[in-house]
Amino acid sequence: MKRYRAAVIGLGWMGLLYDLAERTADRFEIDDVNRPTPPLDIHRRTLAHRHPGDEGLPNSAAEALWIRPDIELIAGADRDRKRLDAFSERYGIQTVYTDAEEMLRRELPEIVAVCTNTKYRAHFTCLAVECGAKGIFTEKPMAHTLEEADRMVKTCADAGVPLSCGGITTTHPSFARARELVRSGAIGKLLSIDTYGPCAQHQNWMYFLESRPVWVVGGGDPPRRESGTDEFGGDALMFTEDGLVVHFRRGGLMLRLSGERGEIIYDYISAWRLWQDVEAIDGVRRVEMPWPAPNFVPPYGSVYSLADVMDCLAGEMDEPKNSGRRVAAALEVEIAAKLSSAQGGARVDLPLTNRSLGLHYDWFR
Prior knowledge:
Distance between the termini: 37 Å
Structural class: alpha/beta
Oligomer: single chain
Number of domains: 2
Number of helices: 8
CATH class of the largest domain: Alpha Beta
Number of strands: 15
Helix content: 10-25%
């Protein structure tokens, strides 16, 4: 069995701390070196799992890398010395760096987790490829601007490097089962998708598109919130090249897939549910059917994002479920919805020509 050498850039919550402590809401500036770090349970045990149904911890990138027999975790980088010390103590790894670029150029890791804040994600993703990385998974959001996202996608695609951008719910194996059902005709031709918003930093809808988005109309987008985010908060419609309609609706479910002969619904609490039209004595009725395993079980985390990257390297997947390509497309749709809303609901065609456009996120992103 081939073993890949791996490293983590950024030992914050998704890089390391989620498996050692409860999340705190302490504020800090994104360029701070000395960051709030709660008391850590360095020897806390996590549930190592590979098969759907064995869900649980870990959440962090470091732990996800550590538990895989086909990966050797060799190094970590963070500007905060406290977090480097915690990484070394937990994993017995003394190869740590305050300079991530130095780590990449000296250690040449094959698998890289980029768990920095959004500001530096594109830079380190592309630098990791330059230094020979074979697979990359990042924290969410993918990037601030379309230009950054384009650069990440192109750099990885040109080098044949699978890129997974965020350990979101879409990375869970149950999403692959849902797409298999849709593609097999379990609900007939897919007519529309309904979801609570484009939410490019945690979108589920893009995985089910078979052609590219071509235009968007939107409205009701509020001004930037106090937290600093200007993610789209209104309602919008998006149309794809093959005529599929995606409705982004405030207050909607996480995901509703409506077909000619059935429907599939997903939300975080009740997971996946399936309805199909069946012949009855009094005509056709829509009946809820058992969901074929696996179903979604929280929590989710880096373990599945990494699994997709490794499956790509093994030739078992074409691209990660939450691939950089898909997230970049979702980011463009979200920006288009904001542009449309600002123009009174005017149609906005894709692709957008101004690639400097982007989004701001909450302070901790």
